[in-house]
Amino acid sequence: MKKAFVFFLLISFAGFSQESKKTIFGTITDGKAPLKNVAISVNDAQKTVFSDENGKYSIEAERNDRIKYAYQGFKTVQIRVEDVTRILNLEMVIDVQELEEVTVLGSNRKSQKVLALEYPSNPNIIRTAFGYLNADTAPGNIRFLSSEEIEPIYVCILDLLRNRFSGIRVQGECSGAFGPSLNSAEFSTNQEGRSLNDEGFQGLGSNAGTGINSNLNQGKVFIRGSLSLTNPRSALFDLDGQILNDAPIWLDIRNIKRLAILNNFAATTSYGNAGAGGVIVINTISGSPKSDKIYDRARLRNNFATDNLISQNDLKRNAPVYLTAIRASQSLEDAKKIYEEYRPAYSAYPYFALDMQKYFTERWRASDFANGILANAAGQFENNPVLLKALAYQLEAMGDYEQANTHYKEVLRLRPDYLQSYLDLANSYRDVGKTKQAASIYTRYSYLLQEGILKSDSTEFANLFEREYNNFLLLEKNNIVKGTQASDLYVAEEDFDGTRLVFEWNDSEAEFDLQFVNPEKQYFMLKHSLADNANRIAQEKEFGYSSVEYLIDSSLPGSWKVNINYLGNKSLTPTYLKATVYYNYGTFAQRKETKVFKLSLKDTPHELFAISVGSKLAFNN
Prior knowledge:
Layout: H1 2-17, E1 22-29, E2 39-42, E3 48-50, E4 56-61, E5 66-70, E6 77-80, E7 90-91, H2 112-118, E8 125-128, E9 131-134, E10 142-146, H3 157-164, E11 169-171, E12 220-222, E13 236-239, E14 242-244, E15 256-262, H4 265-268, E16 279-284, H5 298-301, H6 312-317, H7 321-327, H8 332-346, H9 350-364, H10 367-376, H11 378-381, H12 385-397, H13 401-414, H14 419-431, H15 435-450, H16 460-480, H17 485-488, E17 499-505, E18 511-517, E19 523-528, H18 530-543, E20 547-552, E21 559-568, E22 575-583, E23 591-599, E24 606-612, E25 617-619
């Protein structure tokens, strides 16, 4: 059976690779006016077409080709062609680059003395317990986070790491984070007087002499080897030269000047065997050498969300004319008449069928009539995974998990090389109570990765999938394996306990800003656009996923808000965003709520929903 499925996949992939060329067309602007003579090429080939005086163009391409758009003075854009790609309307962004003063040196290797002098002005230098480290010349890749990039929305270091760095696993929560305060004198950078043991330092994890209550050291961070079936070594923390085995959750993150993750063995060799799990280096503002440079820290104090958002009523006033008309109907019969009135004009518009199905189901509980609308429009959804996902999202939000499951199966058939297809179907099987089928999809995905049939994403989606799979084993293992064998099934300890938010969108070309506002009205912004996060979008399309998670522990209770500013997609069609909120995540009291939003009005920041941590989700309808 396994060989048969692999053979089916190979045939599917071969079919995709043999797909004939298709014409991609669209309009290119600078946000205000059309751009003429934008150079457009496929896979960096020499053959180039140019946009005309109206910004319009057309070019032939195949699935998985990369179309490149280049225009002097604007950021170059590359877009991967997908199975549904036909129209690509592009808004190019001016490329603003700040040139720093260039100093020519005889060698790029600098002494510790020179690095110490450059430290206040060079954000790529971090001060470790064993000297200064320059990311520009250090071996391997070092990930940095500066004070300007640290939002005060985070409660403690665990919250910060969990939400700002992909590819790592964070265990623990911020409870007790407001215990003893940091005494900068106790975290001196002075190397003298430290008694070293065989691994390079004394009192690892004991916090000897720091005055910190060891009971608060409950957080662990895993940088390397985060698979569920392994037990990796946690990362060390180097805080202003003080070595800690546990996360300093008592540290005020507003006091962080710089943070660096040392992930490779060459960069952590000074820490000995204890650094085998990687090292997280933190330089604080109070523990850093003073300089003549003036730092503007207003952003740390004034990062507050405003209330000037578009209301839901305003959004409804901008709804399509057929929705405005049918919402005014006073009876089911009146609604049916209005539907028949608008159907001829909109029968070829699939979003009309989606809107009508939702309206008749939710407003009048007329499920049979609503399903008839979908049946009449079935041809528009056939072989279109983007529309099928929108329909599946909508059915899930209505509690019709069986029909949603049918559409997720079809999406996997159409997109067997997309990682998201497997996770969607596995979760859908969980919703309909078919745990063995869900387990089969989870394991099938893992097998295809091992065989190299699917490409592996080692950062964003890999962590999300692992979290889902481990949660499935935790809550459903008694339904997967019967009898005493269930207790023998290994399940990794859940690294998070709180409220988990997962966002998924049906169109990979969708661009938006998601804003998370904490109870103190401070916010964090996730920018999902080519202008701000082109690499992330390219990675999503490379591996075939369109989802992100956000974790809220119980350290900051109260009302959280999620706002959005929709920036559109390349085909100028609506995007469907699914938000799933898991309460008491990772416990046997876990429950979830799902809501789907149709995003169509661009550049209109508005509230999606509000959530009270520890209580029922409050959606704005």
